[in-house]
Write a structure and sequence with these properties.
The two termini are 52 Å apart. By secondary structure, the chain is an alpha+beta fold. The chain is built from 14 helices and 38 strands. A hairpin with a 4-residue loop joins strand 29 and strand 30 (478-479). It is globular and about 80 Å long. The protein is 29% helix and 26% strand. Helix 5 (290-302) packs across helix 7, helix 7 packs across helix 8 (427-447) and helix 13 packs antiparallel against helix 14.
């Protein structure tokens, strides 16, 4: 069970306990503050009955204690009302259902390893030697001097004293619960960061200002978003879950709460701003909430590289990979530390800025951020390009070995399974650079800057020609994953080339065979596109990047298929993903195993997959957009809208769709291709036919 509030989160068992030895814990500022939080009655465990979820940061765990002596059934109900935010607050209520008083010992077992989040994720957890536990009045304080971090657990109970602590990791209550009555206690776990204890967000059934603000933010988020009405109840549930999860994953700057939010990559491991993840999520979720794109671009621009630092891989103009707040011996920054080891964040920054321009949204912010896009493009040319392509190689042995979206150490490999050696030029990254150049070309065209327009048009055309020559494998009929350190094509059949359809870098005469490979049994499972084909040497359907299915990856492939006019193929991928979402209880996980649907008729979970996860949460929104074939071109006064809702999709109505600063309503139904639109600004002309596939290149339309 995962609860999320900004950068705080809690992972527990479904009875509310946090048990040592796994990834469970209470996390704040990329630190596991508590690794053990176990409630017991008379030294017996609490049996789970139900979890009642409310807001993303709130849940009520309903359970029962073991039967009383001489009884066959339990008569003690245990309710744990938990809030997460800047730590944890939990109201514990024990209700006695019998006719005689219940005398019992209630104990809370507490432990802290003050571990960095990545030590937990990579199974390198060790007990920090200098974590000391101090018993204070009604509280325990656990603190690591070397890391300057820890936690204080405070207990308050209904007229019940906390017994003297014998074991330094126990809070003990000696309780008499009256017949048909109840006993309660309030427990708080307050973070200590840099030696300073932070105030709880929630305390003794009263909302703190911080939690009240969070609740208000969720209320405002819900109120202003487009409303979707559909006869397809399964789709309605999936979209509602995406809506809720993206709301939970938004990040606000506590120093400047008036700024638009960014979006965290996912819980539990990535509750922080990422370059690639946050940019792609914002792009996919733009029809739902353009504020995410606005906030993410602004925050990443503020963190854009300004100097050369091999340890963080920072370079002038480079867009960062991730922002972290974990305790590090070499970090003295209270604002966290940025790591820049990503080859694709910089072109994706430009693509997202261009997308905001195409939708006619946040125009002043788009103009203000254009110099940052130029700096990102300059970084590509100055620091990343070699032989006409964008390459990556880590600067020290402390950095990520692979720096595209498949960033596991074995994620890039040849058809025979041999791992490719950096420097590497990835196929999809060349597509991102191509799309970034096109976006900048149109910025210049609209501004009347003919020299810049010409320069980026020529760059895009040259890159496209080189890519289709060097990356194409004519004897196999598909594109290489990339080029290795010797310039050899990395010849595995993988999903990366589907992103190349999305960006438009693929020549039309090659798109058909690419689509055939992507929808072949080797690649398409029935629920999504595998990251690696089933006949490749490194294939493993239970691996992270070598045969699993990533919903966002498959959604971008589907968008690419639709872009090139492969409607039926795009529909198959979209409906497969929506079927998977329904099987997962309406929430798509970060990834799932790549077994074929003919073998297992439900998708098989990947054990450590993040959920909720940002770009997986945005995937259903992207699928809806591509099935509606919404393609705005607001600067030129046009929007294409030509629905191809699959059979069984039902009727669909969207109210308050953001476009060109207005709120548009639209209606569509399956198989008809008809669409009804109202509220479109007068200066924008509706074109109720698909944008021609040939427009995937440099000049999609004339002004």
């Amino acid at each position: 069970m995962t609860l999320v509030a900004g950068g705080s989160f809690c992972v527990s068992a479904r009875n509310g306990d946090i048990l040592p030895g796994a990834a469970q814990g209470i996390y704040y500022a990329d630190t596991r503050l508590l690794s053990h939080w176990e409630l017991r009655v008379d030294d017996g465990p609490i049996e789970e009955l139900q979890v009642v979820t409310g807001e993303p940061y709130h849940a009520t765990f309903v359970g029962r204690a073991a039967p009383r002596p001489g009884q066959a059934e339990s008569t003690l109900l245990v309710v744990r009302d938990r809030y997460v935010g800047g730590g944890l607050s939990e109201d514990v209520t024990i209700r006695n259902m019998s006719h005689e008083p219940a005398g019992c010992m209630v104990t809370l077992h507490i432990g802290s390893d003050v571990c960095d989040l990545f030590e937990v994720k990579t199974h390198r957890v060790h007990w920090v030697a200098d974590v000391t536990t101090t018993a204070e009045e009604r509280s325990l304080r656990m603190f690591s001097v070397s890391k300057g971090r820890g936690v204080r657990v405070v207990a308050r109970a209904d007229g019940t004293p906390v017994l003297p602590v014998v074991n330094p990791r126990l809070l003990v209550f000696r309780v008499v619960v009256p017949p048909r009555g109840e006993w309660g206690a309030c427990l708080q776990a307050n973070p200590i960061i840099d030696g300073v204890e932070t105030a709880p967000w929630y305390s003794e059934k009263r909302l703190s200002p911080a939690l009240a603000r969070r609740a208000g933010q969720l209320f405002e988020w819900d109120k202003r978003l487009p409303k979707v009405t559909t006869t397809n109840t399964a789709l309605a549930g999936i979209l509602r879950q995406s809506h809720n999860d993206l709301g939970a994953l938004r990040l606000f700057d506590p120093e400047h709460p008036e700024l638009p939010p960014t979006v965290a990559a996912g819980a539990p491991w990535f509750m922080t701003l990422f370059g690639r993840d946050s940019l792609l999520t914002s792009w996919m979720a733009l029809p739902l909430d353009p504020e995410l794109a606005h906030g993410t671009l602004g925050r990443l621009a503020a963190l854009q590289g300004t100097k050369i630092d091999p340890l963080t891989e920072e370079e002038p103009g480079k867009i960062m990979h991730e922002l972290r707040y974990g305790a590090r011996q070499d970090d003295t920054s209270a604002g966290g530390h940025a790591y820049y080891g990503s080859v694709d964040s910089s072109p994706l920054f430009v693509i997202l800025l261009g997308e905001l321009r195409r939708w006619g949204l946040h125009r002043a912010a788009v103009e203000r951020l254009l110099p940052h896009a130029d700096a990102a493009l300059e970084w590509i040319e100055r620091y990343g390009m070699r032989d006409g392509f964008l390459w990556y190689q880590r600067k020290t042995d402390q950095g990520l070995l692979n720096q595209g979206w498949k960033d596991s150490f074995d994620g890039i490999n040849f058809a025979d399974g041999t791992i490719a050696r950096p420097p590497i030029a990835l196929a999809e990254v060349q597509g991102y650079v191509y799309a970034a150049c096109i976006a900048r070309h149109y910025f210049a065209q609209e501004a009347g800057d003919t020299e810049t327009e010409r320069r980026y048009r020529e760059r895009a055309a040259e890159l496209r020609a080189r890519f289709n020559e060097r990356f194409w494998l004519p004897h196999r009929g598909y594109f290489a994953v990339g080029l290795d350190h010797d310039g050899r094509p990395i010849d595995a059949l993988a999903s990366n080339m589907g992103h190349c359809l999305w960006s438009g870098i693929v020549d039309r005469d090659k798109a058909g065979t690419v689509a055939e490979h992507l929808l072949s049994p080797r690649m398409f499972t029935g629920f999504g596109i595998r990251t690696l084909a089933s006949d490749m040497g490194a294939y493993n359907p239970m691996s992270y990047h070598n045969g699993s299915v990533w919903p966002h990856d498959s959604a971008l492939v589907a968008a690419g298929l639709m872009r090139y006019g492969f409607v039926e193929e795009a529909q198959r991928v979209a409906t497969g993903l929506l079927d998977a979402a329904r099987a997962f209880g309406d929430r798509l996980p970060e990834l799932f195993c790549g077994f074929d649907r003919a073998e297992f008729d439900v998708p098989v979970p990947y054990p450590t997959s993040c959920s909720p996860q940002a770009w997986a949460s945005a995937t259903p929104i992207q699928l809806l957009r591509l099935l509606l074939r919404v393609d705005p071109w607001v600067p030129y006064g046009k929007v294409w809208l030509a629905p191809v809702l699959p059979k069984g999709f039902g009727e669909l109505r969207i109210s308050g769709f953001p476009l060109a600063g207005a709120r548009v309503d639209l209606e569509a139904r399956e198989d008809s291709g008809e669409v009804y639109v109202s509220g479109l600004p007068e200066e924008v002309r509706l074109i109720t036919e698909p944008r021609p596939p040939a427009s995937a290149g440099i000049r999609p339309c004339s002004p």
